[in-house]
Amino acid sequence: MGLFNRKSKVDAASVASKDSRTTANPQSPPPSKTTNGISAFPSISTPKIAIPPPPDPARDPAAYLRSIHAVRERSRLVHEKAKRNNLTHFDVDPTKFGETAAYIVSIIKRDFAPEYNTIPPHGRWQHFDVGGRHRIDQLLTSWPSKIDAQERTRRLLDLFVVSVLLDAGAGTRWSYRSKESGKTYRRSEGLAVASLEMFKAGYFSGDSTEPYQVNASGLNRLSVGQLAIGLQVSEANPLAGMEGRASLLANLGEALQNTEYFGSTSRPGNMLDYLLSHPSTQASSVPIIMIPTLWSVLINGLAGIWPASRTQVDGISLGDAWPCSSMPSAPQAQPWENIVPFHKLTQWLCYSLMGPMTRLLNVQFAGVDLLTGLPEYRNGGLLIDTGLITLKPADAKRGLDAYRNNAMVKGQPCMEVVPLFTTDDDVIVEWRALTIGFLDDLHVEVNRLLKLEGSDKLSLAQMLEAGSWKGGRELAEVSRPNTKQPPIMILSDGTVF
């Protein structure tokens, strides 16, 4: 219970200075110079192109809440309450903001100073490179030269879509032993290596002669049991939200039947052809794709993968969007105005899919600054473990009671007790909205502390990659060394986190 007492918070700065385990950053190793002549981790450019406005919420609230614009705009309303310390579930200690920013800076300096321009943008690619082995580079090298750059990109998009959708929290007990190296990996990196090895083995392809692809027929025949075998899930090695992950992939198989986005062969990678030929894509010296165009493919093309039980407006399922008591409420406001959209997995897809397109085809993206910090438990856990926000006593008690009740279930965590809530709980929704707002503020302060200006400034995606996400994980490891779980545990179905 002392976890939620500010006096007992971990000294974040000392964690960074004492932790010398990652001088080369095992999660995001220094990028290789080239692969087949392809530069590693080029910067995601943000060309100055006019971006279309979001849908008018007064006319089409569902379309607005499903837009990328709405994520930051709606979360900002909760963040404004945080600045006044007027939240429902959390207290805010503004004196901890500087310490939190300084901790992020210490992590970034430790792993990248002074070459901050080498920090890759946040994305799935780095998870495949766990342990310093450049697995995607090796995969590209393994394919014959007759496979052109566009098909290589399609294949990586196939892989990355499936891998991201499998990348919900793995829980504290699951691990994956690589069939190629014999090494064991956990959490996001373990899921990345597992999905890559399954991809190479043809798990997601309906054509045995073409294993390096994902298509509808392959996903439609993939059973929960086969997925469990591929992920090495067993009673002794349980994976949280296993059924939810299997459902996402089954639903993805159905969604890929949309030929407008995914072509006649029903592959995620065929979105490349849609994007390159889209009227909004500009072709000067390099293709320039608008983020709202990529977003429309993901939010519309993959709309059917999310559980039907999610929040709806006008009969339309919104996906990762939830009512929040800190938002405006009726009768003064319209019913939709109490909803905060996050679309975390869709944003994680956006961040991750830009990498292959930029690296292999030099595609540039306009409107990248519309994307937000990811509202998940590593970034959000950082805010709690540094003392910037603290769960209010009544909510802490409710969450601790829920944890103890859940611990009675066989296979559930029962040590390093922390508050537990379901994904749709108002505590979690407020926490996630806070995370988006504070990450924007921290982004500005981190660049100031690093004395980076103009084109040298870190992008938000770079700060997420090198600082906040990694820092949140490291603080969790120090604060709760047995489970390494976040300061709030989320009972998830594998379709959000």
Report on this structure.
By secondary structure, the protein is mainly alpha-helical. Helices cover 45% and strands 8% of the residues. The chain has helices at 12-18, 61-65, 68-83, 97-112, 125-128, 135-142, 149-166, 187-200, 216-220, 224-230, 242-255, 259-262, 271-277, 291-301, 344-361, 377-385, 393-407, 426-449, 460-479; strands spanning 34-35, 38-39, 90-92, 176-177, 184-185, 282-283, 287-290, 312-313, 316-317, 321-323, 339-341, 364-366, 389-391, 420-422, 489-491. α7 runs antiparallel to α15, α16 (377-385) packs across α18 (426-449) and α18 crosses α19 (460-479). The longest helix is centred in the C-terminal third of the chain and has 24 residues, at 426-449. The protein is globular, with a radius of gyration of 22 Å.
Salient structural properties:
497 residues, disordered N terminus, single chain, mainly alpha, globular, 19 helices, two-stranded antiparallel sheet, three-stranded mixed beta sheet
What's a concise summary of this model?
With 497 residues, the protein is mainly alpha-helical. The chain has helices at residues 12-18, 61-65, 68-83, 97-112, 125-128, 135-142, 149-166, 187-200, 216-220, 224-230, 242-255, 259-262, 271-277, 291-301, 344-361, 377-385, 393-407, 426-449, 460-479, and strands spanning 34-35, 38-39, 90-92, 176-177, 184-185, 282-283, 287-290, 312-313, 316-317, 321-323, 339-341, 364-366, 389-391, 420-422, 489-491.
